[in-house]
Write a structure and sequence with these properties.
By secondary structure, the protein is α+β, with helices and mostly antiparallel strands. The chain is built from 16 helices and 16 strands.
Length: 468
């Protein structure tokens, strides 16, 4: 009965937590190694996001996803819808990298590189710059509405909205040439498509980074729910050293905690105040923790002031906290790393050897084969020639695989403009005495006459009567 009462109490507490009104979190500003790493990450990632669309490469935008033309330009490479395979490989590599780094050191992605974390960090910088530090923000929110408060809040939200619209403008600039887009904005001649996505993406940035913040990480992001499946006792996680810190309690600076019967934790709660999700790391590993390591910087600063060793809160493993030996390089990490290396190398090789031509072969299925008036066996095919280069090419078509094959077509040499797909009907004929079986493997070869490096070969089947 006692256990049932405890379980019922826990259920009630959980229900209250899930349906309770959100209490705004006021993260305290923190400085230190990991804070510097986060700042560095923000400048690098947002620098790339806002800066890359303005770079040019060979007279065009360096990174441009031209949906109407069905071309993706990435630096000196051009990708077409037929290259979707590379996108699939890239997504697999990204997922595997997430598994690898999570198994190695927890939620590194969430703490340093996730767009939600990065933009939220910028929005909090603007908030501190306009409203002040944590105590001033709390005092301002509790104060009655006055002209001063309205002006401060209006300035903050105005800055947020301008930054959000700039973010939306940059997002659309990856799909519409950004210089042309800027000209349209200045001339108030934006199209409906560009207008919608600028405001939509801007509103999403404003809502997620300005209002929702930690709620996105706790309630909306699925990664918070399944991350534990990738953890093991040797995963580096941010942890509070309970054996060293307990029992916690206040004391004077420089006091010997052992003589007072206390641990190193002075119960200052600064680790809670700096947490962007509002958790207490001293309660153990929690799914709300995004691995930003702000609590490590804060606690190390307090330990310095108290004259205690750093590392009361630190990156460590469950095994290390239990006094056991940790194994960073373990089978899971090695397997993830090996697959990641192989797939990344394969993708780089495939892209570097990508041919700017495609050849699809469709065999006429209305008839297995036909016999001509000359006694030859004929198969009919439709060949789709795809020029994925930035300039037109003149191609020569040949067929091989069985001795005596004859290629009959009105167009053996064809010019294909850049980005075009041309369907070419062809007939392949052969004397039946040369057929050794009813099904024969043949190959069509497409060779660019003006560039010997562009050559592609695709296989097909030739159907005929039983061997002659």
């Amino acid at each position: 009965m006692n256990q049932q009462a405890k379980a019922a109490t826990k259920d009630v507490a959980l229900e209250e937590e899930l349906y309770a009104k959100r209490k705004k979190i006021y993260p305290r500003e923190v400085h230190g190694l990991f804070a510097s790493l986060r700042v560095f990450g923000v400048f690098v990632l947002l620098g790339l996001y806002y800066g890359v669309p303005w770079l040019n490469w060979d007279g065009r935008q360096a990174v441009l996803f031209d949906l109407p033309a069905r071309k993706f330009y990435i630096l000196g490479l051009t990708f077409w819808p037929q290259d979707f395979f590379y996108m699939a490989m890239l997504l697999v590599i990204a997922a595997l990298a997430l598994f690898f780094f999570t198994a190695l050191a927890g939620r590194l992605w969430c703490g340093y590189a996730c767009p939600q974390t990065v933009w939220t960090e910028v929005f909090m910088w603007m908030e501190r710059w306009i409203e002040g530090d944590r105590p001033r923000q709390m005092k301002l929110d509790k104060a009655p509405w006055t002209g001063r408060k309205i002006a401060i809040k209006g300035a903050k939200h105005g800055a947020w909205l301008l930054f959000s619209l700039w973010t939306g403008f940059t997002f659309v600039g990856f799909f519409t040439p950004i210089r042309h887009l800027a000209h349209e904005v200045m001339a108030f001649s934006l199209g409906s498509w560009e207008t919608f996505w600028i405001f939509f993406y801007g509103f999403a940035t404003y809502g997620n980074a300005g209002w929702l913040r930690e709620q996105v990480c706790i309630y909306m992001c699925p990664y918070a729910r399944f991350q534990s499946a990738m953890f093991d006792p040797d995963t580096l996680i941010i942890s509070y050293d309970e054996k060293r810190g307990e029992p916690r309690g206040a004391r004077k600076r420089g006091a010997d905690p052992r003589s007072l019967g206390l641990g190193d934790c002075i119960d200052c709660t600064i680790c809670v105040q700096v947490c962007p999700t509002g958790i207490d790391i001293r309660d153990g590993l929690q799914y709300q923790c995004i691995g930003c390591a702000a609590c490590i910087d804060a606690c190390d600063d307090v330990m310095d002031k108290m004259g205690y060793p750093k590392g009361l809160i630190r990156y460590t493993t469950e095994h290390a906290l239990q006094g056991k030996k940790s194994h960073i390089l373990r089978p899971r990490i090695l397997i993830y790393g090996l697959f990641l290396l192989v797939l990344t190398g394969g993708l780089v090789y495939a892209i570097s050897h990508k041919l700017p031509v495609g050849l699809d072969i469709l065999r006429d299925r209305n008839a297995l084969y036909r016999e001509t008036s000359m006694g030859l066996v004929e198969n009919v095919y439709t060949l789709k020639l795809i020029n994925m280069d930035e300039k037109p090419h003149h191609y020569h078509l040949t067929v091989s695989g069985v001795p005596g094959l004859q290629l009959e077509s009105h167009i053996e040499d064809v010019e294909v403009p850049s980005g075009r797909v041309i369907a070419v009907p062809v007939q392949v004929r052969i004397d039946p005495v040369n057929l050794k079986s009813p099904t024969n493997d043949i190959e069509f070869t497409l060779q660019a006459v003006d560039d010997p490096r562009i050559r592609i070969t695709q296989s097909s089947r030739f159907i005929g009567p039983a061997g002659g």
